[in-house]
Amino acid sequence: MSTDRASTVAPGHDSRTSPRVVVAGVGSEYRRDDGAGPAVAARTVEESPATHDIGPVVDPLDLLGRWDRADLAIVIDAMRSGAAPGTVRVLELTGTAVGSSPGVTSTHGISLSGVLRLAQAIDQAPGRVVVVGIEGDDFGRGLGLSPAVDAAIPVAVQKVVDLIKEVQACA
């Protein structure tokens, strides 16, 4: 059974006038730096109100049903790649690029690329997925971000806002 695009957009969204952009902060604020994604997503929506925050998302699998057929889905997550804590990276996600490459690991059960492949298989994938990753330092139990990750939050927010402006300018 096929679903037309108009029935999958957010309430009040007119797909003829602007792209549907969703942001999802992946992580748990109760695991220190793992809370970076939700923190960035919440601040992004404050700066770009036309954006829909579909998180927080604790497990990437929870993106299914929330990001379906968005024009742009921006996923913000803490990462471990060996870079200095607080490093912000922007990566274009394809069905095989992120999460399956050596050197970048996820603290979640299924990788983002695995969720994207699943969404593609059921014809519900966003048109474009971009990951904004913040290199974490402390993933132990507790509240609060490490100093390096906390200092990187405004940088990550600006990168997300720039991505949103880019897609809106092309609409």
The strands making up the biggest β-sheet line up spatially as: 2-1-3-5-4
Main beta sheet strand tally, sense and closure: 5 strands, mixed
- CATH level-two architecture: 3-Layer(aba) Sandwich
Quickly give the structural class: alpha/beta
Q: Unreliable segments (pLDDT under 50, ≥5 consecutive)?
A: 1-15, 97-107
Distance from first to last alpha carbon? 29 Å
Radius of gyration from the alpha-carbon trace, in angstroms: 15 Å
The helix/strand series, from N terminus to C terminus, equals EHEEEHEH
Average pLDDT for all residues: 83
- Rough outline: globular
**CATH topology term:** Rossmann fold
Under CATH, the homologous superfamily reads: HybD-like
Describe how the helices and strands are arranged.
Blueprint: E1 21-26, H1 36-47, E2 52-53, E3 72-79, E4 88-93, H2 112-121, E5 129-135, H3 147-169
Parallel strand pairs: 1-2, 1-3, 3-5
Antiparallel strand pairs: 4-5
Task: Explain how this protein is built.
The protein is of the alpha/beta class. It has a single domain, classed as Rossmann fold. It has helices spanning 36-47, 112-121, 147-169; strands spanning 21-26, 52-53, 72-79, 88-93, 129-135. A five-stranded mixed beta sheet has the order 2-1-3-5-4. Strand 1 (21-26), helix 1 (36-47) and strand 2 form a beta-alpha-beta unit. Helix 1 (36-47) packs across helix 3 (147-169).
